[in-house]
């Protein structure tokens, strides 16, 4: 099951990732996110979209079962295309997208958060680009929409998380709230935006995307090329194998 739920009420569409226990993503989920956001393009009863996760985690990155597929060059290229299209369906959605970050946003979860126009997060939520720990060169271009470059470099090169409070201080999060107040805060913000004319919101979103174009497809292609270049090395497979086995990696550092 894709685990993507859609609800529309009072011009606000809520897209929820519901794949317990951790909202990990697989190919089917990326495609379902893409198709859900594409379907919103055809509707005239939407002004704002809220993207969130069910449970205690926003999104926990890629599902372990599909890691071996990402270790094969040809399959990796196909997989990256699916992931990229999922990200871009959120980033290029013609309506403003508010990310309601209910917990950890790891790997692709961090990238999806970056694709949102505005973010509201619960206290203590962690944002991580943990790809370096599993042998993948990840979607830093999308995460760069949340934090300054030097902060992004730390996240990417260390794989260590930042809290919602830290990203708030860097200007990447609009509001940090207690856990029980997240959706109320997200819908309050959504209703604030929805007071404006639907066509004005659409044109502003288009204008903002054009004026602050970050060439994200090119950056994501750089990620793919770097991952493919890493493939022949022992440490590429060792990183993901160790992560799946929950053991320390044994790198040869060549």
Automatic annotation (TrEMBL):
GO function terms (MF aspect): catalytic activity
Q: Which domain of life is it from?
A: Bacteria
Which Pfam family, any one, appears in the UniProt record? ECH_1
PANTHER family the UniProt entry points to: ENOYL-COA HYDRATASE (PTHR43802), IP11341P-RELATED (PTHR43802:SF1)
**Family assignment?**
Belongs to the enoyl-CoA hydratase/isomerase family.
Q: Per its record, how is this protein called by name?
A: Enoyl-CoA hydratase/carnithine racemase
């Amino acid at each position: 099951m894709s685990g993507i739920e859609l609800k529309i009420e009072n011009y606000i569409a809520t897209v929820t990732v519901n794949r317990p226990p951790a909202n990990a993503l697989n190919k089917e989920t990326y495609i379902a996110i893409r198709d859900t956001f594409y379907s919103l393009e055809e509707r005239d009863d939407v002004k704002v979209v809220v993207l969130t996760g069910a449970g205690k985690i926003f999104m926990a990155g890629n599902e372990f079962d599909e890691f071996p597929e990402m270790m094969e060059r040809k399959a990796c290229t196909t997989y990256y295309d699916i992931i990229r299209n999922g990200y871009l369906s959120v980033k290029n959605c013609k309506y403003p997208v508010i990310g309601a970050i209910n917990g950890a946003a790891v790997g692709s979860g961090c990238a999806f958060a970056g694709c949102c126009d505005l973010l509201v997060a619960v206290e203590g939520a962690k944002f991580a680009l943990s790809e370096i720990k599993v042998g993948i060169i990840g979607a830093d271009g999308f995460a760069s929409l949340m934090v300054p470059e030097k902060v992004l470099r730390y996240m990417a090169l260390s794989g260590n998380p930042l809290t919602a409070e830290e990203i708030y201080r860097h200007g990447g999060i609009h509001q940090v709230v207690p856990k029980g107040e997240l959706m109320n805060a997200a819908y309050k913000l959504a209703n604030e935006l929805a007071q404006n004319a639907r066509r004005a919101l659409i044109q502003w979103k288009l204008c903002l995307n054009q004026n602050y174009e970050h060439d994200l497809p090119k950056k994501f292609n750089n990620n793919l090329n770097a991952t493919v270049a890493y493939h022949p090395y022992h440490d590429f497979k060792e990183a993901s194998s160790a992560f799946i086995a929950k053991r320390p990696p044994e790198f040869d550092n060549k």
